[in-house]
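Box 3.1. Reading complex inputs
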Amino acid sequence: MNFQINKDTLLNNLIVAQKALSNKTPNPALQGIKLEVLKDHLVITTSNSDIAIKLTVKDASLAVKSEGSVLIPGKYFIEIIRKLDGLKVQLSMAADNMLRIEADRSDITLNMMDLDDYPELQFSEKVKSIKINVRVLKTIIRQTAFATSSIENRPILTGVNFKIDGKKLIAIATDSYRLSQKEIELNESYEALNIIIPGRSLEELIKVLENNNDQVELHFDHSKILFKYNNLLFQSRLLEGNYPETSKLIPTEFATVIKFNKENLSTAIERASLLSSRDGNNAIVKLALRQDNIVEITSNSPEIGKVLEEVYPVDEIVGHPFKIAFSSKYILDALKIFNSSEVSVNFTGEIRPFIIKGEYDENMLQLILPVRTE
Amino acid sequence: MNFQINKDTLLNNLIVAQKALSNKTPNPALQGIKLEVLKDHLVITTSNSDIAIKLTVKDASLAVKSEGSVLIPGKYFIEIIRKLDGLKVQLSMAADNMLRIEADRSDITLNMMDLDDYPELQFSEKVKSIKINVRVLKTIIRQTAFATSSIENRPILTGVNFKIDGKKLIAIATDSYRLSQKEIELNESYEALNIIIPGRSLEELIKVLENNNDQVELHFDHSKILFKYNNLLFQSRLLEGNYPETSKLIPTEFATVIKFNKENLSTAIERASLLSSRDGNNAIVKLALRQDNIVEITSNSPEIGKVLEEVYPVDEIVGHPFKIAFSSKYILDALKIFNSSEVSVNFTGEIRPFIIKGEYDENMLQLILPVRTE
């Protein structure tokens, strides 16, 4: 193997590949980056127990003297390429199983790993596939993945449930304290589908997708999903099991609907959460609709102090005075992902889940379970 | 106590006062901020075991209804003021030993601490004092404090030694592996002085000094130093003991002097330190002057790989080929604080300390001890 390439081109691709590189893995070979150089392109592969990435790099700067494949310690290789001076970098095999890296006045040799230890990865296209605009896919992920569970006691809840029915795609995430649901209309009609994608895989995927109007192809079988996007193949395992049926949890009739300026509501809750009683790590905050139609956000931490915030709703309120308590983190997380500057909070009862919607966040809803106090 | 003040004015002063606020202190009263409101000004005081800060705030926005003093939990108070909406904030005593904080539509009460528990602090001016331009003082601190020791086994080395002799001020810091020395000329002649200021106090001080042409007054007695700067009084304890005599360590005759572009030298050393043998946490890097007058920076980590960097000196070299090894951290730390883009590295021998100087860093020198290898 012996080739030259523009240093920044190589670096930018390595930064994408790094997303599937694991520092701690039971299989040491997965700490390596696989480089395959062919006549007119370079293939970069990384993988860990959740995801695998394959990048095909075709670049005018690529000059191949001899083809070949190597497995290189990933962390060191990326750090070296990042710190090199000069426009181009030359990579070649040196004696004693070393990779030689030359750029500007640097001459670096890096011990290689045994390519035979690297697992055989299949990035094959699957029978079923759909196409989504990359911006739409990013929105779906941004608006749902945050609501997955980070604790592993119910593994299924660490994933986002994607359901397709005809032209409709619904994505749902819940950690059993809050739920996020986003629905979009696809360009074509597809066969019914119901899969669960690990939230962490989606969080990594979103980092490497750009903000353009390209399409992403999603290919899946029963155990894997493959995202095809320009020169990137991004594969994730799927979670096995049945995702809970959440539709019955979502109330459809509401006793009280209050429309807020999103910013006013979140800053009031943020201040209240500074001095609040705690349920574990969560700050508990109370919301009350007063007789005079002003909303009070309150908190009380007997040892430290208390907060009373008045928030004026945007519109006339439909409903009677009531009180509800909730974990401030869940409502702040939810408010953050709305694009709308005004949100409607829909209450059913003092100990019933409430939902948040926004005019400019079509077909997206956030559900939050209240907590009981006293 | 009852007064109103511009919120940002209060916040900006609290951020300065926070530098002397301790989270973990044997005396819980020191987690408090002392506020004293007088007819036309506000005094904010904080202190920990090393430093004490007193700010006198006179501001057109200050409207005092009634004078008084309180001690408030510092962390919570600053977080609340930071998150408030509105231009102004009203602070008043409420029943039950509470401080009431009102701004915009927020009404917050914070349990107060017992003012009687707060230590009596003296910020009195001392018999001896000198004046230094604030930019000059910041340069002295920036160029020396980083070289103090962070381990407490020789407490004296955690401080910076300030010595005044007539119009000359010398500041010295060393952790016994490297030494930094900066000399400046004062505007007036002063009595001889030799004190040791804790490096950490200086690191906090530098954060609250601005970049203008104001003077800082330094007042000292045997145990304390007081910095007077505009509305700020910043006091630090001094370290007791005798600072080691370092002047004999600094070589004055050199076998080889090499002038480098600072950037070229540091990036080469940074790359070499990626793959280097370790002395504890320190990456060991070697420098060699070759027969052809090119400098080689090398490192070798048998398990990972090796680096060879060529650095072309800026000028003709005076001296013979030689080799030296050092900890890359010390030389990178030192290079960072030079304003000059070219630096001269002055070598005496392969196992003798070397010093770095820069044309535009007058009267400043950095000394580094080499390490023995093989």
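In summary: Chain B touches chain A through 31 residues (CB under 8 Å).
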